[in-house]
Specification:
Elements (H helix, E strand, L loop, with lengths): L7 H15 L10 H13 L49 H20 L6 H6 L1 H24 L7 H27 L2 H31 L8
Length: 226
Amino acid sequence: MRSRGFLTWPLALLALTLALGLGGCGGSGEETSGDSSAAATTRSTMPSAGDGGQSQGGQGGKGQGGRGGGSGRDDPEEQGGGSGSGGSGSGSGTHSGDRFAAQLRSIVSDAFVELQPLAVPATAISDPEAYAGKLEDGVGELDDTLDQLEALDPPADAERGTQQVIDAFSGLRGAVASAADAYGSGDPQQRAAALLDLRAAAGKFGAGIQKATASLRDAGYGLPGR
């Protein structure tokens, strides 16, 4: 089994669901009825803060094109399993397995830190243009995260879980990109709709991370007793 630190990040990432769901609403200084309704719906349906941790958004300038909302690859679990192709090392407990676990933990932890600026509801309400910039930065950070995740060479027994992590981040990237476009439009109704879409995508992200966590834990990359 891995050390206790390995799966602390899934718990933290589940908080990103909460943070993104509460993170954006409002127009410039005064909320429209659509903004208020969207924010109220989000607050009433999001999981409690006990599920979570943090989130952030770093460098910008990467735009919203490119990856879309998912990888388009089939989930091996839904296709009857299999570890897929590639992957080096012989898995949990080996030197290569430990190195992979450290790399994955570092990538996801860094992403979590860099996405933190997305969880600033006060900015989303008081300065939606600035929040649009934070969303654009978040797209760039998610692109970087996906590039790093896709460059990993996981052990065969960790391929499924790694792909599920990639799929979860890819879906989140698409939602953040759409929200950035909506916030940049200046239309309060588009912003309100984007908030609801972002909340739904954040819920899917949390579920995807839970699924990945279970796969990695089953392969031996998990917390003792969890």
